[in-house]
From TrEMBL:
It is found in: Nucleus. This is General transcription factor IIH subunit 3. Part of a TFIID-containing RNA polymerase II pre-initiation complex that is composed of TBP and at least GTF2A1, GTF2A2, GTF2E1, GTF2E2, GTF2F1, GTF2H2, GTF2H3, GTF2H4, GTF2H5, GTF2B, TCEA1, ERCC2, ERCC3, TAF1, TAF2, TAF3, TAF4, TAF5, TAF6, TAF7, TAF8, TAF9, TAF10, TAF11, TAF12 and TAF13. Component of the 7-subunit TFIIH core complex composed of XPB/ERCC3, XPD/ERCC2, GTF2H1, GTF2H2, GTF2H3, GTF2H4 and GTF2H5, which is active in NER. GO terms for biological process: nucleotide-excision repair; regulation of DNA-templated transcription. GO terms for cellular component: transcription factor TFIIH core complex; transcription factor TFIIH holo complex. InterPro entries: TFIIH_Tfb4/GTF2H3, vWFA_dom_sf. The keyword Transcription applies. Keywords: DNA damage, DNA repair, Metal-binding, Nucleus, Transcription, Transcription regulation, Zinc, Zinc-finger. It comes from Amphibalanus amphitrite.
Length: 285
């Protein structure tokens, strides 16, 4: 039997679970499902690796693996996670009590995803060239609407595509067009969980298998990917908009001057302001 190699899973958890609480769900049960899924991944093989990053409020924090002393080793990954589970729960509780989730703001998932890619790249460099390392990222979002981070997320998605890192998305709130685009770009899957209490079943069914195992499963029908772009002015998804011919910025309403590159557009029949030119200082005689 061929050695499957190491399987590195980086989870980016969005703790803004306001949509879960508003629908009658329990935020604590969601966190318990995430921890149970992490244990299942590590128990699947002794060679499996895990990285857990939390996006909460305005910060991102890597909860696992913890920072080890020079004399400690992270080889026993499952035992290390079992010892760190209580600390992870304690940190999550402290973060959510210090900054309660706000439905008006979105957690910085783009930064958390970038941190996960950096961790995967570091682990890949530490492995020998002939080592087989399967790597992927799983985003667990409780808000769905992340159009305000459209540009940042798309840059990270294209980086993951270049690094051949698959990005999956598990959405607890409304459908997310941005996460659907990211999963489609990187070859992953995006699944919306209708009921938060069934989160663990969806995680074990759709996201625990990887590679050839996933291809043999009867996964949910993939949704029609919404490839609308977000405007640069209001960060809202638009079907029809105005595009700057210089920097390709997208706007939902016409503006005579591009707010990104400050290009002045020439429109027939309209008198437009001229771009300000810096005056040269007069040289003395």
């Amino acid at each position: 039997m061929e050695d499957p190699g190491e399987h590195l899973l980086a989870i980016v958890l969005d703790t803004n679970l306001t949509s879960v609480v508003s629908s009658g769900g329990d935020a604590g049960a969601v966190l318990d499902s995430i921890l149970a899924f992490c244990n299942a991944h590590l128990m699947s093989s002794t060679a499996n690796l895990l990285c857990l990053t939390v996006a909460h409020g305005r910060e991102n924090r890597v909860l696992f693996p913890p920072e080890l002393d020079d004399g400690q080793s992270a080889q026993a990954h499952y035992e290390l996670f079992s010892q760190s589970s209580s600390g992870i729960v304690r940190q999550l509780k402290a973060m959510m009590e210090a900054a309660p989730p706000d439905p008006q703001t979105s957690a910085p998932m783009a930064a958390g995803l970038a941190m996960s890619l950096c961790f995967i790249s570091r682990v890949s460099r530490e492995r020998p060239p002939h080592a087989r390392l399967q790597k992927r990222v799983l985003i667990v979002s409780g808000q769905g609407t992340v159009s305000a981070q459209y540009m940042d997320l798309m840059n990270v998605f294209f980086t993951a595509q270049k690094l051949e890192i698959q990005v999956d998305a598990c959405v607890l709130g409304a459908e997310s067009g941005v996460l659907q685009q990211g999963a489609d770009i990187t070859g992953g899957v995006c699944v919306r969980v209708p009921q938060p209490r069934g989160l663990l079943q969806y995680l074990l069914w759709a996201f625990l298998p990887f590679g050839e195992q996933r291809q043999k499963l009867a996964l949910p029908e993939p949704p029609v990917v919404d490839y609308r772009a977000a405007c640069f002015c209001h960060r809202q998804l638009v079907s029809v908009g105005f595009v700057c011919s210089v920097c390709l910025s997208i706007f939902c309403k016409f503006a005579p001057i591009c707010s990104t590159c400050h290009t002045v557009f020439k429109v027939k029949g309209m008198s437009l302001p001229k771009p300000s030119k810096r005056k040269r200082p007069k040289q003395g005689l």
